[in-house]
Amino acid sequence: MKKFLILFLIFIISSTSAHSKQNSDDVNTKNKIEYLNLQWWQNFNDDILIEHLKNLYLNNYDLKNAELKIKESEKIVKLEFANELPEINFNGFISRDFRSSEQRFGSMSIPSYAQNNFQLPLTASYEIDIWGKNRLKTKSAQQKLEIVKQAQRATYISLTSDFASDYYNLIKVDELLNIQEELIKIQTQITEKIKDKYEIGMCSISEVLSEEKILTSLKEEKNNLEDKKETLVNILRSYLSLRSGDILRTSFSDIKLIENIPEEFDSNIIENRPDFLQAESDIKRLGYDVRVARKELLPSFIIFGQIGLNAYRFSDLFKNFTQLASAGIVPEFDIFSGGRKIAFLKLKKYQYDEALNNYQKTIVEDIKEVNTALAEFKTSKKNFIESEQRVKIQDKIFILATDKTQIGSASNLDLLYSKEADLIVKKDKVSNTINYLVSAISLYKASGGKNLSEVNEDI
Q1: Which string of DSSP letters, residue by residue, matches 70-133?
Q2: N or C end of the chain: which has fewer CB within 10 A?
């Protein structure tokens, strides 16, 4: 019956441990999916971007390391929780004594002898947590775990935001390269026509040189764009842990702008930021540590007990008279420790005050970052609107130039100049469009991964 009871207890403990591990893994998976925040990224209407973010979730080594740090911190919490539980040990001792000379105990003499010693005890000890010291240590470890979880969340927000920004910058470079090639073709035609005019004496050599200079500048700009494109591709590969291959991306013409982003936020939006939540958890953690340091000044009480077998012959090992049992309570109190505990208490108090200062600093810094990102977003939005208006005006100018060319009141050279100006304005629109998206992503990052479309609905 006793054997069955022991086996049953072992089974219950093992099942509870396995169930706890499964629950922990489920929670971590749920958190990671939540941190990825696909609902926000779906506002961009870009399935390719979503697919890349899913691959980032699976393959990025920084995210994998962040997950491992979570698991490490969970084990630290378990280590602290173990101190709240009783400890049971088996310390078996088997030996044989050889006495070559007689042993004397006063007037009694024992001649030389040899004997066996069999001790098979189970030893249990438990620190009575009268002052709640061990429970506070576990709570402190739990706050450390919350800090690490927020660090993991910050890694997700940072990596996804940086990846999306570089992804859209790559799309911008693609479109700028297309326009740049058109500009080079047009400038080549302009240069040839100016050369023709020079050959018939209708312009000076300085005009030819000026146009050739513009052509070389356009080619140089194209080279820089190609270099930037290759750099962005390499960066995106590193995010996805790829060694080679191109990065699949949507075309500029398929980009959809996010329109429902507010231009004003309440200051409490910073409460969603990981660094704010980390600062809060750090205050709680050090608050627990201060209380632990105070309770270290109080005495502790340890209950101990031992039960087992003690025999000098193996044949007698399992007989009733060989049973061993003892129990007691041990009070512990440091009468003098050189001021170590007082110094430790003061140290934790100073650390707590430092955490309070860091908390206040974090609030100021977070508000500054959100306001800066919001100002950049509003400026990018205004510039985008202005560039759209400028493109419309330039399109009208180009249409007028086309009409003039058709009726003979303007030359083909004038039409090429007009088309070139039209393409330059479109380059500005491409840059302002992507800057609008990138600034929205920066605002998302500054708000702590808040779905900005939901903020707009709340307002």
Answers
A1: HHHHHHHHHHHHHTTS-EEEE--EEEEEEE-S-EEETTEEE--EEEEEEEEEEEEEEEE-TT-H
A2: N
Among 228, 232, 227, 263, CA closest to 162: 232
For residues 54 and 51, give the distance between their C-alpha atoms in angstroms, rounded to a whole number.
Answer: 5
Radius of gyration of the CA atoms of the chain, in A: 38
Closest residue by Cα to residue 122 from 308, 329, 291: 308
Could you tell me the CA-to-CA distances from 244 to 50, 51, 236, 241, 271 in Å, in that order? 20, 18, 11, 9, 40
d(CA 131, CA 208): 91
Q: Which two tokens stand for residue 43?
A: 């506002």
CA of residue 65 relative to chain centroid, distance: 9
Answer for the pair 252, 426: CB distance below 8 angstroms, yes or no.
no
| Burial grade of 330 (CB within 10 A; 0-12, 13-18, 19 or more) | exposed
In total, the chain counts a number of residues equal to: 459
Rounded to two decimals, the pTM is 0.83
| Beta pairing partners, 302 | 127, 330
- Domain definitions of the chain by residue range: 30-59+132-298+340-458
CA proximity to 160, closest of 277, 54, 42: 54
Tens place of pLDDT per residue across the chain (459 aa): 444 434 444 444 444 444 444 455 555 566 667 788 888 999 999 999 999 999 998 888 888 898 898 899 989 899 888 888 888 888 887 888 777 677 777 778 777 777 888 788 888 888 888 898 999 999 999 999 999 999 999 999 999 999 999 999 999 999 999 999 999 999 999 999 889 888 888 888 998 899 999 999 999 999 999 999 999 999 999 999 998 889 999 999 999 888 888 888 888 889 999 999 999 999 999 999 999 999 989 899 898 888 888 887 777 777 777 777 888 888 888 888 788 989 999 999 999 999 999 999 999 999 999 999 999 999 999 999 999 999 999 888 888 888 888 887 778 888 888 899 999 999 999 999 999 999 999 999 999 998 887 774 544
- In sequence order, the β-bridge partners of residue 67 are none
Instruction: Say which CATH superfamily domain 30-59+132-298+340-458 falls into.
Output: Outer membrane efflux proteins (OEP) (1.20.1600.10)
Gap between the Cα atoms of 213 and 209, Å rounded: 6
- Could you give the CA distance from residue 137 to residue 300 in angstroms, rounded to a whole number? 15
Contact 161, 125 (CB under 8 A): no
Give the CB-side neighbour count of residue 7, counting CA atoms within 13 A: 4
**In Å, how far from its chain's centre is CA 168?**
21
